[in-house]
């Protein structure tokens, strides 16, 4: 019997070093201020299983920020620890339901269909906007052209309060 996802899922996506882990930390801390039970899933997108590198450190940062359950997945290995040949994002979300989270923040898994906050470091990263689905906002390190601004809510990286309020409002509305 498959579990049915009964919590909000919000993805944070962007290229390497765009600030994904920092944003997830901030979201976790803000969600905890509202007494939400928070799960986080980090995708190790560099091939193979997670090692003692930054992915494990990043999931530890999620835990330190207040996540009730935090994990990293790559190469079929989920570091919680559990072993499976297929740790699809859907399977991970179903598994996390055991912990009864109110929200799951997902770092990575760009191609999955969940609502996304997209981090943009430079104009070269704008290619993401044409290849992703379900974008609810863009958080950018640089000013963006008007046509991009008309397509999505845009926040500058330094506008923490604005985009955190926006994203937590989205989480609340989707619950």
TrEMBL record:
Gene3D superfamilies: P-loop containing nucleotide triphosphate hydrolases. It comes from the Bacteria. Pfam families: MobB (PF03205). InterPro entries: MGD_biosynthesis_adapter, MobB_dom, P-loop_NTPase. Residues 9-140 form the Molybdopterin-guanine dinucleotide biosynthesis protein B (MobB) domain. GO terms for molecular function: GTP binding. One of its GO terms (biological process) is Mo-molybdopterin cofactor biosynthetic process. CDD domains: MobB. This is Molybdopterin-guanine dinucleotide biosynthesis protein B. It comes from Priestia aryabhattai.
């Amino acid at each position: 019997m498959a579990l049915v996802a009964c919590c909000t899922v919000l993805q944070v996506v962007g290229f390497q070093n765009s600030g994904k882990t920092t944003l997830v930390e901030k979201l976790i801390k803000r969600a905890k201020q509202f007494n939400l039970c928070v799960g986080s899933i980090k995708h190790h997108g560099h091939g193979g299983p997670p090692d003692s590198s930054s992915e494990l450190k990043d999931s530890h940062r999620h835990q330190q920020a207040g996540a009730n359950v935090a994990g990293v997945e790559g190469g079929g290995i989920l570091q919680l620890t559990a072993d499976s040949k297929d740790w699809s994002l859907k399977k991970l979300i179903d598994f996390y339901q055991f912990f009864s989270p109110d929200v799951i923040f997902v770092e990575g898994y760009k191609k999955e269909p969940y609502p996304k906050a997209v981090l943009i470091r430079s104009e070269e990263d704008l290619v993401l906007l044409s290849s992703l689905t379900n974008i609810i906002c863009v958080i950018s390190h640089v000013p963006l052209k008007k046509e991009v601004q008309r397509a999505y809510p845009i926040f500058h990286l330094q506008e923490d309060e604005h985009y955190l309020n926006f994203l937590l409002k989205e989480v609340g509305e989707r619950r």
